[in-house]
From TrEMBL:
Keyword Cytoplasm among UniProt keywords: no
Name of the gene encoding the protein in the UniProt record: Thoc3
SMART domains: WD40
Domain Anaphase-promoting complex subunit 4-like WD40: 139-189
Descriptive protein name: THOC3 protein
UniProt entry tagged with the keyword Ubl conjugation: no
Cellular compartments per GO CC: THO complex part of transcription export complex
Swiss-Prot/TrEMBL WD repeat ranges: 93-127
GO term, biological process aspect, one: mRNA export from nucleus
Species assigned in the record: Oxylabes madagascariensis
Pfam families: ANAPC4_WD40 (PF12894), WD40 (PF00400)
PANTHER family assigned: THO COMPLEX SUBUNIT 3, THO COMPLEX SUBUNIT 3 THO3
Length: 221
């Protein structure tokens, strides 16, 4: 259904939606809710193509770059891999000893990374599905990840008051971006080494409850 503002409203199962992603070919939207139901919506017809109820906590969801497998992270510390719609389980990987929160694929299609409540970021080989490296400079649960456009840098953030930027191939720290509050989301520019991020900033010296809602940039010349 199209609204007067020109936005399209898609009907999905009841429940508060908490994550969403596009398939790489732009044909399908996947949306997950707090009831751990993931619905796949046809982008042309705006109708549901499939719906899956999971028996575990579903966190972030993502297709791989080849658009033939669907990945999700769960509350048991696992990465679940499924075939494209209709869904068919392929593999479940024990990635972390605690809640596996976020997942991101690098633009080059070589790696994907996951972040967990154990404060670790793990780097995985896409073809072999093995962990090749861990990043352990954060102290709080990893909430957000982002690869740079060339796949050479990985930004990760949490309730720590800094963002860690690592060199993917070595794991070495390239930068530590200082923040005044927890960081909820980070995103690299699609063509340049420019990082956008949003923190839990407060607006006003005397009103600590008022949220600022600012977006910041790191990497400007």
């Amino acid at each position: 259904v199209w609204s007067r503002s020109g936005t399209s409203c898609l009907f999905v199962p009841s429940g508060e939606n908490i994550n969403i992603c596009w398939s790489p070919d732009g044909q399908t939207i996947a949306v997950g809710n707090k009831d751990d139901v993931v619905t796949f919506i046809d982008a042309k017809t705006h109708r549901s193509k499939a719906e899956e109820q999971f028996k575990f906590e579903v966190n972030e969801i993502s297709w791989n770059n080849d658009n033939n497998m669907f990945f999700l992270t769960n509350g048991n510390g696992c990465i679940n891999i499924l075939r494209q719609v209709p869904l068919k389980p392929i593999q479940s990987i024990n990635a972390h000893p605690s809640n596996c929160i976020c997942i991101k694929f690098d633009p080059m299609g070589k790696y994907f990374a996951t972040g967990s409540a154990d404060a670790l970021v793990s780097l995985w080989d896409v073809d072999e599905l093995v962990c090749v490296r861990c990043f352990s400079r954060l102290d709080w649960p990893v909430r957000t990840l982002s690869f740079s456009h060339d796949g050479k840098m990985l930004a990760s953030a949490s309730e720590d008051h800094f963002i860690d930027i690592a060199e993917v191939e070595t794991g070495e720290k390239l930068w530590e971006v200082q923040c005044e509050s927890p960081t909820f989301t980070v995103a690299w520019h699609p063509k340049r080494p420019l990082l956008a991020f949003a923190c839990d900033d407060k607006d006003g010296k005397y009103d600590s409850s008022r949220e600022a809602g600012t977006v910041k940039l790191f990497g400007l010349p």
